[in-house]
């Protein structure tokens, strides 16, 4: 292994981690700025209405205000649990922006979807042979699970039967031993031994 290259690699990783912190002020502020930009872009492209834009901006501004309040309370830093909560809120906001911006969009269907020249379309239609293979695989899996369930049930029944038989035989053993002892006593008394 080339030692100078490995040292250079680790030094570059350390330098990068100092420049781009994963946790803290830079990542949260950058995410808030990106979300605001995504909202503006969606509004300009017509993917969302001004009312939707206002609602989304309001939620991002609430998160931004919360971050500022937490930072002022903690000397400009966020605690790990607060950072986790903020990231969760940012994830929810991002998902909301994505779902609102992409709702109502659909891809146009190409002509001749069905017929001899059928190809997989943009609507996600699948190859019928592949579907059939998947269905057969699923049926085999279900049959295997049913077989395993039946085998398990039979094994449980067998164990229950064995348990009952052992209990029954243990009760009978005492009776058999008692009768055997009584028979020995009778034979001794009668002198048959």
Strand-residue fraction?
A: under 5%
Taking the sheet with the most strands, its summary is:
none
Helix content: over 70%
Mean pLDDT: 80
Secondary structure category: mainly alpha
Order of helices and strands: HHHHH
The number of helical runs is 5
Describe the structure.
This protein is mainly α. It has two domains: 15-102, no CATH class; 131-193. 77% of the residues lie in helices and 0% in strands. The chain has five helices and no strands. The protein has helices at residues 3-19, 25-45, 50-73, 80-102, 128-190. Helix 3 (50-73) packs antiparallel against helix 4. It is elongated, with a radius of gyration of 38 Å. The termini are far apart.
Summarize the structure.
With 193 residues, the chain is mainly α. It has helices at residues 3-19, 25-45, 50-73, 80-102, 128-190.
Features:
single chain, 193 residues, mainly alpha, 2 domains, elongated
């Amino acid at each position: 292994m080339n030692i100078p290259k490995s040292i250079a690699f680790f030094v570059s990783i350390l330098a990068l981690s100092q420049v781009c912190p994963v946790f803290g002020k830079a990542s949260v502020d950058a995410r808030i700025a990106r979300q605001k930009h995504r909202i503006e872009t969606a509004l300009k492209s017509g993917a969302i209405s001004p009312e939707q834009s206002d609602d989304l901006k309001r939620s991002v501004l609430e998160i931004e205000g919360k971050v500022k309040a937490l930072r002022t309370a903690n000397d400009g830093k966020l605690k790990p649990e607060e950072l986790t909560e903020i990231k969760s809120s940012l994830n929810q906001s991002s998902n909301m922006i994505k779902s609102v911006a992409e709702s109502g969009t659909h891809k146009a269907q190409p002509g001749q979807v069905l017929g001899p020249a059928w190809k997989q379309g943009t609507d996600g239609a699948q190859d019928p042979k592949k579907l059939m293979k998947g269905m057969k695989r699923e049926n085999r899996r279900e049959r295997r699970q049913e077989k395993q369930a039946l085998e398990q049930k039979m094994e449980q029944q067998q164990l229950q039967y064995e348990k009952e038989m052992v209990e029954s035989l243990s009760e009978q053993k005492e009776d058999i031993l008692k009768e055997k002892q009584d028979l020995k006593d009778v034979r001794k008394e009668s002198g048959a031994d």
